[in-house]
Specification:
Blueprint lengths: L6 H10 L1 H24 L3 H17 L1 H14 L3 E5 L2 H14 L4 E4 L3 H6 L1 H7 L3 E4 L2 H9 L15 H12 L7 H18 L2 E4 L3 E3 L4 E6 L3 H7 L3 E7 L3 E2 L2 H15 L7 E5 L13 E7 L3 H4 L15 H5 L1 H6 L10 H12 L16 H5 L6 H14 L5 H14 L2 H17 L1 E2 L2 E2 L7 H4 L4 E2 L6 H9 L4
Helix pairs in contact: 2-12, 3-12, 9-10, 16-18
């Protein structure tokens, strides 16, 4: 994946047009409140978070073993397992399968990994119609849009926006009533489910001991996608695995609570191979595409912990930066704090070096993460690499070198304090600076800067030692 446009350009457009971001903030504020209530109501939250973290880190440390175990168990159940090194390999496998089986229509459940590989475009180039069936993804597809949130793809749209899109694209009378919009989508999608030759979905978690796939959803479209078409393809990031069903039950206890505030999602689907000879329902073929696409290069490094993420979206919902700008600003299928680590980790720091800067380092993401992933530590590490690789702005380098030189000498530091205090008073009014020069104007573009004190803390401390005021 390549950076679509300049990060600062996307950021400025978001700040100029607050409409989509304000809708995102409204949604995530409600979801965060629900999630916090769910955690408070569950007496085992901290225990389950500790166990979940242990499971995910243990699995990552032994990923080769569990992937091999999963593949053997899945193939024993009749599932075809394909390990794809990159997005092109993964897409080519599915495009070739569709061509070989004469598939003309594909229905899809929500899948971040297929967004990552841009599978839809690959299939469409080969003449295959692809229909998203998750309601949010369906509306985004109708609008020619992309998801802005991991679990709420159209968090940036209002119900009025959705009504206008569906009226224009489906030819139905305009309405912004959610029940009527859902009914219209169901009517439109039902025939697609019944006539599609292939269903494609993502994978929340896979169970190594049985070769099973777990899909968590709230709409039922995932269940239709995995059972109605003759062929089912599951796209799975190679890290989305747990050793046992017992481990799966632990993670399910924290996934919905952290993501949506539910005790458990409405549908938890467990898929273990194609239908048996004595069964009348379910797919005739099941294929699992296990995707690397840069993940193996992160294992064993200082960013490996981020692969423990279970994609609940809690870090996005709590992040003060994401709340203000929305997901499209990040330019990646993975936005927010987790995306600011995953994206440069998978596809290189150079085109994505701005993302680790899009954080206040307040630590809220780690506090709400059900796996307790230390995202702030990894953001700092990526910032350090940005400087080491010469990707940071030149002014940042010379300003930090100047500060280091001043801070290494008490006399120089004191003289700089006095100079800054004098200069600050020249451009201030009522104790505040309205406009700072150079790169610092980014601060005063949205808030005032306090005038430096005439008597800084160090001076007051010295006066205190000498009996001064």
């Amino acid at each position: 994946m390549e950076a679509r446009v300049d990060f600062k350009g996307r950021l400025q457009r978001s700040l100029d047009d607050r409409g989509p971001a304000s809708k995102v903030e409204f949604m995530v504020t409600r979801v965060t409140a629900n999630a916090e209530a769910a955690r408070q109501d569950y007496p085992f939250t901290d225990v389950m978070r500790d166990r979940s973290r242990a499971i995910r880190l243990h699995t990552l440390a032994n990923l080769d073993i569990y992937l091999e175990e999963f593949a053997e168990a899945a193939e024993a159940n009749g599932t075809a397992v394909f390990f794809a090194g990159d997005a092109d390999e993964a897409n080519r496998y599915v495009v070739d399968l569709a061509a070989r089986e004469g598939v003309e229509l594909v229905v899809k459940g929500k899948s971040m990994v297929t967004e990552e590989t841009e599978l839809n475009a690959a299939l469409q180039r080969d003449g295959v119609e692809v229909v998203e069936t998750d309601l949010g993804e369906f509306i985004a597809q109708l609008a020619g849009d992309t998801p802005s949130h991991i679990i709420g793809p159209i968090a940036h749209l209002s119900r009025q926006d959705c009504g206008r899109v569906m009226s224009e694209k489906l030819g139905i009378p305009y309405t912004d009533d959610p029940d009527q919009l859902v009914a219209a989508a169901r009517e439109h999608l039902r025939e697609r489910f019944l006539t599609a030759g292939m269903g494609i979905t993502g994978c929340n978690l896979a169970v190594a001991e049985t070769g099973s796939i777990a899909l968590v959803e709230n709409e039922g479209n995932g269940r239709m996608t995995t059972t109605s078409p003759r062929i089912l393809v599951v796209f799975m990031g190679m890290e989305r695995i747990v050793p046992t069903f017992g481990d799966l039950s632990v993670l399910l206890n924290v996934l919905a609570r952290s993501g949506t505030g539910q005790s458990l999602s409405v549908y938890t689907n467990l898929l273990t191979g194609p239908r048996r000879p004595d069964e009348h329902d379910g797919p005739e073929q099941v294929h699992v595409v296990v995707l690397d696409n840069g993940r193996s290069s992160m294992l064993g490094g200082d960013l490996a912990e981020i692969l423990g993420c279970i994609r609940c979206g809690a870090c996005l919902n709590i992040c003060p930066v994401y709340r203000q700008v929305g997901g499209h600003v990040y330019g990646s299928v993975y936005p927010g704090p987790v995306g600011s680590v995953v994206t440069p980790g998978l596809w290189g720091l150079a085109p994505w070096h701005d993302l680790p800067q899009a954080s206040t380092l307040c630590g809220a993401c780690q506090e709400v993460c059900p796996i307790r992933i230390d995202i702030p530590r990894m953001l700092l590490r990526l910032r350090e690499r940005t400087v080491d690789q010469g990707l940071a702005p030149a002014w940042l380098g010379w300003s930090l070198r100047g500060f280091a030189k001043a801070a290494s000498s008490p006399r120089r530091f004191a003289s700089r304090e006095r100079l800054v205090a004098r200069l600050g008073r020249l451009g201030s009014r009522d104790g505040w600076i309205r406009r700072l020069p150079g790169p610092a104007r980014g601060w005063t573009a949205s808030r005032d800067f306090p005038v430096p004190s005439r008597r800084p803390f160090r001076q007051r401390w010295e006066e205190r030692d000498h009996g001064g005021a």
